[in-house]
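Reviewer 2 asked us to include a model.

Predict the structure of this chain.
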Amino acid sequence: MNRRRGFSLLELVVSLTLVAVLVGVFLERALYYRELAEKSAMEQVALDLRSSVNLRVAELVLENRFAELPALAARNPMDLLAGKPQNYRGLLPAAGTQEIAPGNWYFDNTSKEVVYYVDSGRFFAPDEQGRMRVAWRVKLVEGVGGAAAPQWARLELAQPYRWF
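Predicted model (structure tokens):
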């Protein structure tokens, strides 16, 4: 009655290999969903910014204050939000962008763009300069005939991006 108890070496190796594969698959999916959540959060802030700009423009148009629209295009759209995002770092000149950590927003005072620096960018295509960022700016919409004063303003992407 000499029975061995416990795992054999082969069973132990197979078990550890299986656990390693499962952990690898789990980590891959967790990183994917983390990046997807970052993209969704960024797009939600952008939608809030767009809504705030639209509300401010509608207010100016209803009050017949079209002359104030050009000033809105130079203004920081984050100032229109009821509450700024936690990861908003404020107003920076273009030269100060090296100080911005990934996963944060800032307003570029030179280009008048609201910029988000991507943190988890495995599925993000960088811009022409190789930067992992997405930028929006307030664009004026001219009136009929092209020579008329601006009649509206909206928040637009400064350049298209591809993420996923």
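The longest strand covers residues 133-142. Residues 60 and 66 are 6 Å apart (CA to CA). We have added this to the supplementary material.
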